[in-house]
Write a structure and sequence with these properties.
With about 650 residues, this protein is α/β, with parallel strands linked by helices. It is built from 22 helices and 20 strands. The strands form 3 sheets. Strands 1-12-13-14-16-15-17-18-19-20 form a 10-stranded mixed sheet, with helices on both faces. Strands 2-3-4-6-5-9-10-11 form an 8-stranded mixed sheet.
């Protein structure tokens, strides 16, 4: 009896797996396994260091515009110390971008010129001794010892002014709010404040070219002091406290410190090499007397004097913070307005004389977008090693769970639906059906799951004769997946670096199956799956077409503008911004990288992700491009009277028209 059962075992196993694959023995939640695997990959990721370059450092910090050098605007005296006065100051750093702060001016000739920068939560008044709240009043100590001191205002991490009255206000911290808006514009809150610091250096140098300029900062001010000294050789000495370190846990620090491509060449110790041989003084606590003496080149400091009195009646720093937030927002809105010119220049060498010339001439552009915007990993390093198991057997198709290896700790996972009426030797078209935010393969491909948003679109397409594969993308599990970008960004990577590798492996494996035509594999994604539909087929030419549902819009506005309450600076998705996106591509340009393959947009009138006007504005560029290239029949948009969901009417017909023989 036992011998008989053993003889049947190979057939039983074969029925439970896709032919040519090993049995799948994964246990637990496939989404968790995917996300945790990427985390493990990043936790051990290393890349050889190159040579630090101050120009590249300036780029990733967003210090990219020339400064205007129009001087300081000072107010009346607001306080008097022993041998110095305190004034409020304003100065323009780049066109339309102003800094504010305090100037501590000695009564006689200054013995030194210092820019003193506190942590983001410290007001200039705290450093100058006009109000309590900071553990160190080092700007005041420097002024008491005869230094001229500029104390710039930093944006804090409160949230009272995060938003636009009449549009939407949020509880997002001020620095993060500005980081979200600035990052896709190739700017950064660090870079914006860096420009203000460097403009202050400009002013100090003009005052007395023979007197060296030094800089001191604590916390966020230490970050600025370190990097300003690396960028500007005119800074003779720098004092950095409460900041300097290995930065291995940068992803746990405030998101406004997220910098694209910081590792390995611009870790703090590498930045310090850009300062050498000039003097860098580092302490963990707020500046000590010994450190301040080193900064001044002094043998002693004067003892602290009596507290200063602010001559302004009941000074409230709130309106100043509000004013500074508004100024930076206006500046960033101007960058948005000017970004189409930069994109036009970026694409200037693309050849529109024929589809063939377009594809060949944009290959380098595509590679640059992959390298500099998405972040490129090497090709998948492991064999696919496909493992499958049968999970349902329906009248028209069978469904399998599938796991493929990509890189160590990184897998591709999803549901494969195979129609039963495929004849021997026949090769069918396939559609990769991509879920959205917090979605799973079962949401789109399990006949027992009724999800109105997805309308079982992988099931419906399988019933119509397509092979479908529904991958598990890593944008699931809340902050756990968002932390992928926090860990990846410093390495010049993103979650889409991994998604690109997973889809490259999926395409390779699907194309190897004897019942799939590798030339007829389409992509159809909703929401975050539509986000994927705009990027992955643009990078991977193995996809024969792309359908973007519930995501296509004027993406620069969507990700950086404050003109509508649905834009990403206001929402919880802090992982969305891609560095300098606005100066490389918009959705229309991404669609042009999908060209000459078919491209389709599905848009519900009631979809709150965007509005019809923004969608139509951006899609008009796509249609005009396909029309100018003589292939207007390969693109279309379908509007339907519905919300954020798969409609599955025009898209299904589009798939039949373009993929079915």
């Amino acid at each position: 009896m036992l011998h008989w059962l053993i003889s049947l075992l190979p057939g039983i196993l074969c029925a439970q797996t896709l032919p040519g694959t090993a049995p799948l023995e994964w246990k637990g939640d496939g989404a968790e396994l995917i996300v945790d695997g990427i985390h493990r990959f990043l936790d051990s990721y290393q890349r050889p260091a190159g040579k630090p370059d101050s120009r590249r450092l300036a780029y990733i910090l967003g210090v990219v515009e020339p400064r205007v050098n129009r001087g300081m605007v000072t107010s009346e005296v607001i306080a008097r110390g022993n041998g110095y006065t305190v004034k409020t100051i304003e100065w323009e750093s780049v066109e339309g971008l102003w800094g504010e702060g305090l100037l501590l001016e000695p009564n006689g000739q200054p013995r030194a010129r210092v820019i003193a920068i506190g942590d983001a939560g410290w007001t200039p008044e705290m450093l100058a001794g006009l109000s309590p709240g900071a553990p160190s009043q080092f700007a005041r100590r420097l002024a008491e010892s005869g230094a001229q001191v500029i104390v710039p205002l930093l944006i804090d991490r409160k949230s009272a002014y995060s938003g636009v009255p009449g549009v939407k206000m949020s509880k997002i911290p001020h620095r993060e709010f500005l980081w979200r808006q600035a990052f896709p514009l190739g700017r950064h809150i660090i870079g914006i404040e860096m420009q203000q610091v460097l403009a202050a250096v400009d002013w100090m140098v003009r005052q007395s070219p023979g007197l060296p300029v030094t800089i001191a900062g604590h916390g966020d001010g230490g970050l600025l002091a370190l990097h300003a000294a690396a960028l500007d050789p005119r800074i003779a000495k720098s004092l950095v406290t409460g900041y300097y370190g290995p930065r291995d846990q940068l992803w746990k620090e405030p998101v406004d410190r997220d910098v694209w491509g910081l590792f390995p060449d611009y870790r703090d110790e590498a930045v310090a090499k850009l300062i050498a041989p000039r003097e860098l003084i580092v302490e963990t606590a707020p500046p000590s007397d010994a450190a301040l003496k080193k900064l001044l080149g002094a043998s002693s400091l004067k003892a602290p004097q009596a507290s200063l009195k602010d001559l302004r009646a009941a000074f409230d720093p709130g309106p100043r913070m509000q004013r500074q937030m508004s100024r930076i927002i206006r500046y960033l809105e101007h960058v948005i307005k000017e970004s189409p010119k930069a994109r036009a220049q970026f694409w200037a060498k693309a050849d529109k004389t024929s589809p063939e010339h377009w594809v060949s001439s944009t290959r380098q552009i595509r590679d640059q977008i992959w390298d500099d915007l998405i972040g490129r990993l090497p090709e998948p390093s492991l064999p696919p090693n496909p493992r499958t198991r049968l999970i349902f057997d329906q009248p028209k198709y069978r469904g399998y769970e599938v796991v493929l290896d990509v890189w160590p700790n990184v897998n591709a996972y999803g549901y494969l639906l195979v129609p039963k009426d495929i004849r021997p030797g026949e090769r069918r078209a396939a559609v990769v059906c991509q879920h959205g935010l917090e979605g799973r393969p079962k949401d789109v491909a399990d006949p027992a799951v009724s999800n109105r948003t997805y309308a079982q679109f992988a099931v419906r397409l399988a019933e119509q004769g397509f092979v479908t594969f529904s991958p598990q993308n890593p944008y699931v599990l809340g902050d756990r997946f968002r932390q992928i970008n926090r860990k990846a960004h410093p390495w010049k990577l993103s979650q889409f670096s991994f998604i690109a590798g997973q889809h490259a492996r999926i395409l390779q494996w699907l194309g190897s199956l004897d019942f799939i035509d590798a030339r007829r594999i389409g992509f159809y994604g909703l929401s975050y799956g539509g986000f994927t539909a705009m990027r992955i087929p643009a990078l991977l030419h193995g996809y024969a077409l792309s359908i973007c549902s519930g995501n296509f819009t004027e993406w620069v506005w969507k990700v950086a503008s404050l003109d509508a309450p649905f834009t990403y600076p206001f929402t919880g998705e802090y992982e969305i911004p891609e560095f300098n996106f606005a100066h490389m591509v918009n959705h229309a340009e991404l669609a042009s990288l999908i060209f000459p393959r078919p491209f389709y947009v599905e848009r519900g009138h009631k979809d709150g992700v965007s509005n019809d006007e923004w969608v139509a504005y951006e899609y008009a560029k796509v249609y005009r491009f396909y029309q100018q290239m003589g292939l207007k029949d390969r693109t279309a948009i379908e509007y339907f009277d519905g919300p954020h969901q798969i409609h599955g009417v025009g898209t299904y017909e589009f798939l039949k028209k373009t993929l079915m023989p």
